[in-house]
Amino acid sequence: MTSAIRKRHKLVPYRSDHAGAALRPTSEINVTPLVDVCLVLLIIFMVVTPMIGRGRDVALPLALEATAHKEGEQVFVSIDDVGAWIDAEVYVEREGFLRELDGALKVARGRAAANGYEGPLLFIKGDRSVDFRTVKTVLQWISDDPRTQQHDLALVVALPEAG
Amino acid sequence: MGMSAGTSGGAKSEINVTPLVDVCLVLLIIFMVLVPRNVPELSVRIPPESKRPQERKVAEDPLVVAMTPEGGLSLNGTPITQDRLSEALTRQLEFRETRAVFVDFEDGVPYGEAVPIIDLAKRSGADVVAILKEKGEVIPSTLRPGGP
Q1: Model pTM?
Q2: Which of A23, A80, A120, A156 is the residue whose CA sits 20 to 30 A from A150?
Q3: Roughly how many angstroms between the first and final C-alpha of chain B, as a whole number?
Q4: Which stretches within B47-143 are classed as H helix?
Q5: What is the spatial distance between Cα A29 and Cα A32, in angstroms, rounded to a whole number?
Q6: What average pLDDT does the segment A50-74 reach?
Q7: How far, in Å, CA of A97 to CA of A75, rounded?
Q8: Cβ-contact A163, A113 below 8 angstroms
Q9: Is the predicted ipTM greater than 0.85, yes or no?
Q10: Is a pLDDT exceeding 80 seen at residue A125?
């Protein structure tokens, strides 16, 4: 009996791919791999987002010439109309800002020493539209406190060709 | 019985690598996006508050570039255009020992207009750009407008 069925199926190879009536061709697209990849992406971005310390995104001012440093060891402080941002936290008061910055700088100093990085440690990302006074105030806070004092403060800029 | 997938759909001994390749490609793209980039920056300094009065007579007059909220520039108090400022700074800095330029932007100048002037000073030959601090200037303890 089995050989008879097989023989019949061989005559109709198109139908023989499907195991009988239980698996008829379906018209729906198979979304399982798509969902798999999307979930992996979601998890990776959840893990990675707090790890990249590029600071809050602001509209950087333009400059024609600038020194470039590879990112990785620095502390990024973003300044916009809301206040001064370290990672995802915004500060408007001097003491809270300096305490947080001190902690972040300690970590960055350790990392810089481990990797032999000797460039500026503190990168300031000011928004184009923010009053210069706000930026100046933050710079003065930093330079006025022995915990956070730096030799050079780096103002992050955008170069025209970089967009 | 008789519900097997037929001869053409027999058990295959190869592992299905398609999902593996999918996930690897996604990982590759993510790490390509996350690769450390070069950050362009302009270094500035804030001169520390001198605790004692300076005895040493400064040999050279400091170069102070000021800017008003309207965008008017001046060099050591003399109004100047942006093109002339570059020339003047290049000329003045050429024979100096310490090539420092001080910037003194008034309140209300947008940061986006202040930075190009710092850039201009650097391109005109300044090694150090410092943000001028008034003597006895009180640093506000909050960024809120109108705060102390």
Answers
A1: 0.71
A2: A80
A3: 87
A4: 82-93, 111-123
A5: 9
A6: 79
A7: 13
A8: no
A9: no
A10: yes
